[in-house]
Design goal:
Layout: H1 2-21, E1 32-33, E2 46-52, H2 57-66, H3 70-76, E3 79-85, H4 92-101, E4 108-112, E5 118-123, H5 128-138
Parallel strand pairs: 1-3, 2-3
Antiparallel strand pairs: 2-4, 4-5
Length: 139
């Protein structure tokens, strides 16, 4: 009984800690909501799509730590940047996204070239330095 309580309490404390990391200002990558039409609007630039879910702790860490980094923000301006919400996992829209982009889990960040072809895939949390290295190598 008490052991389970300790585990649940520890998980809650960690979750609260992650929420506390989320910056309250808008110092982050300038994300647009992903729509089916988004890729038809790209103008000769690469695309970054962040597939996330509201319940996903590593997604929140990406937002709080990686996507709020000044170097990552500056680099992201060279791309069209979209967030694709996978929270409602059973909805037809999410199912369609999952199949179209072969998304197995969140967070998944896809980098597409200006033709909309995938050139890089990042699965799980990566820190700002690693994210910057990966993205700048494809740009």
């Amino acid at each position: 009984g008490f052991r389970i309580f300790k585990i649940v309490f520890s998980v809650l404390i960690m979750a609260v800690g992650v929420y506390a990391l989320i910056p309250s200002d808008t110092n982050s990558v300038d994300w647009q909501p992903f729509t089916e039409d988004a890729l038809s609007e790209i103008s000769g630039r690469g695309v970054i799509i962040d597939f996330y879910a509201d319940w996903c702790i590593p997604c929140k860490e990406l937002d709080a730590i990686t996507f709020s980094d000044p170097e990552v923000i500056a680099l992201s301006k060279e791309f069209e940047t979209y967030k694709a919400d996978m929270t409602k996992s059973l909805s037809p829209e999410v199912e369609s996204l999952r199949n179209r982009f072969k998304i197995v889990g969140v967070p998944t960040v896809l980098v597409l070239n200006s033709n909309g072809e995938e050139i890089e895939r990042i699965t799980g949390f990566v820190n700002a330095k690693e994210f910057y290295k990966i993205i700048s190598s494809v740009n």
